[in-house]
Design brief:
By secondary structure, this protein is an all-alpha fold. The chain is built from two helices and no strands.
């Protein structure tokens, strides 16, 4: 997996976690769900990159 892609995915995951926590703290369901969605999207991208890496090896 490219280092840049890995860093972008991690940043997106951390951003999602922050949004989720902010949503919990402010009782904002939309922001909380947006954070969870970002985390899921980041995890799927990571999985896709790992599959690509498996076929390269």
């Amino acid at each position: 997996m490219g280092t840049v892609d890995k860093a972008k995915n991690k940043a997106e995951e951390l951003s999602g976690k922050a949004k989720e926590k902010f949503g919990q703290a402010t009782d904002d369901r939309d922001k909380k769900q947006e954070g969870k969605t970002e985390q899921t999207k980041s995890n799927l991208k990571d999985a896709g990159e790992k599959v690509k890496d498996a076929f390269r090896d």
